[in-house]
Structure formats: C-alpha cells, structure tokens
Amino acid sequence: MRTVALDFPKSILIETCSLCQGQCIFCPYKDIRRGQKTDYLDEKVIIKLLSEMKNYDVKRISLFNNNEPLMDSRIYKFVKMTSTVLPHVEITLSTNGILLDEKVINRLYENGLTSFYISIPTLNREDYKKIMGFELERVLEQIKKFYNTEQASMLRIAVPKARSYDELAFKNEFRKNGIKVAPWNIEYVESWNLDKEKLDKYFEYGGTAELCDRPMDQAVILANGNMTICCRDWHEEVILGNVKENSIYDIWHSEKYKIIQKLIGSCNYDDISICKGCTMTLQRKQS
User: Fold this and answer.
1) Collapsing DSSP states into helix, strand and coil, what is residue 265?
2) DSSP conformation class of 154
3) For 8-31, how does the pLDDT look when each residue is reduced to its tens digit (9 = 90+)?
4) Which are the contacts of 110, defined by CB distance < 8 A and separation ≥ 6?
5) Strands 115-119 and 155-160
6) Calpha distance 176→62 (Å, rounded)
7) pLDDT tens by residue, 127-183
8) Which uninterrupted H or E stretch holds 249?
9) Which of 31, 26, 30 is nearest to 199 (CA)?
10) Which contiguous run of DSSP H or E holds residue 143?
C-alpha cells in the first residue's frame, strides 16, 4: 500500500458523458443518477487534459467511470485522440454489453483501444438475465466472433462475481479462446439504496484484504468536470475541484486533497465520509 501520494496520478478516469441505460442490480446508477441532468465533458476540456498528461508518467487512462461509454457517440474519436497523444498509455473502456456488436469492437480496436472490459457476472443464463436485465446470448454471440483473433487481445471479461460464477466455465468459454477474465467483488454502501435482499441472493459482495490506496495514484474526473477521490462517490460527497477551471496537477496538490491523502496514508478511513461506509473498510475492521 502507498502511504505517500505520487506527484501526479498514474491512472486517470475520465467520464466523457453521464449516461447509462443499464439495469444491473449491483449498480446504483438507476437509483441515483438516472433522471438527473445529462452531462457531456466538452471536447476542448478533454484535449486540455490529454495535453497536460503528456508531461507526466501516466500509465492508464480509462475513458469511463460510472456510465456506459458507448452511449457517447464521440467515444471513438476520444479513443483515437488519446492513443495519438499518449501512444504508450493503456486506454480502457468498460461496457454492460447492451450496445455491443461487431462494428463497435472493430472500430474501438482500429482507433487504438487497448483494453475493453465487458461485464459478465455469470454464465448461468437465468441468473445473468436477472442480474443484468437482458439475455446472455445477446452479448456472447458478439464476443464469439472474436475468439482467437487479434481483437481478442483487447477484450476483457469483467466479472462482478455472482454466487453462480464458475471459474472453470469462464476458463473454457473465454480464456481458452484468447480473452482474459478479470473477477472482482462488488461493493455495497447503504446510501446507494440498492436492494440488499437481491444482492444477498446473487452476490457475495464485499471488499478485499488489501488496504485501499487509490487516491494516492488515481484521479477520477466526472462528466461535469468535478474531480473526486473515488470512482464510487455516487453522491459526489468529496469534490476536490473542477478540471474546467484548474489543472489536474493543481487539484491533486490542493490542500484539501493533501489532507485526505494523509488520512489514507495513515489508514484513518473513518475520517473521510466517502470511505467510512465502504464495505472494504467494514471488512477490514472485522478481519
């Protein structure tokens, strides 16, 4: 775990728009953000951010946060811009799979995307539909077109692990066909208003034994320009600044950010509102 923040974040999430059409039962978007004003981060702001990042040792840029990036028609252009300005940086997207098709995958690959995460919590057809809201075959038939192809190296199966997750089944379906699988445990926070009964039925949610140090090396930029300390700050409880008005560097080195980073470096998570109710924190207390 990092106890001292980097001089500049090595990982940066940029949410280009605030839209998502998903019905995933493990995601609070539909309960918190749907119905709110739609934000689109202006292209000029994104160009400014990329120009700033050229001056630092950034390793990864994720052109999404708590949204569905394929709902932003500009996303292909932004992937191309990023790969042109920062050719050695990993560029990632994540999708719920609803808009996934052959043209989308090919276009993202041609524009320089390096990692495309597709959310599949289980290969159990019945559970998948109840968790995601649509048929598993709808997304599988698109992925299968790229088994053992050049594009397969870009594809990642992002697995918010359901109780019916089967490691061997995922290996046989994806890993044997050149596609990586990345399992993760979903989080739960009471203020997200998720149906806990459904979560308990389908997921073993929680955190990790590792201490969270992401605010030491990761910046999160929302579609309205706000910069927060956590990709899971759904209510924007801790806003550190806005990239429309200030640079990433200046916000990263602001007094407000430094105080939070010091608290995290000393593991004083309970002194930070967004960290206090996190299941990762609760799990650590109980361990």
Assistant:
1) helix
2) T
3) 999 999 999 999 999 999 999 999
4) none
5) parallel
6) 26
7) 999 999 999 999 999 999 999 999 999 999 999 999 999 999 999 999 999 999 999
8) helix 248-252
9) 26
10) helix 136-144
With 0-12 / 13-18 / 19 or more C-beta atoms within 10 angstroms meaning exposed / middle / buried, residue 235 is middle
Residue 155, beta-bridge partner list: 116
Give the mean model confidence (pLDDT) for residues 84-105.
98
Torsion angle of the four alpha carbons 279, 283, 286, 287, in this order, in degrees rounded to the nearest 10: -170
pTM for the full predicted model? 0.94
| Residue 260 DSSP one-character state | H
Token look-up 């980097």 returns 6
Q: Which of these, 29, 45, 31, lies nearest to 96 by C-alpha position?
A: 29
Q: What is the CA radius of gyration of the chain?
A: 19
39-94 residue pLDDT tens:
999 999 999 999 999 999 999 999 999 999 999 999 999 999 999 999 999 999 99
Stated length of the chain: 287
CB count in 10 Å sphere of residue 158: 20
What does the block give as tokens for 57?
A: 């040792």
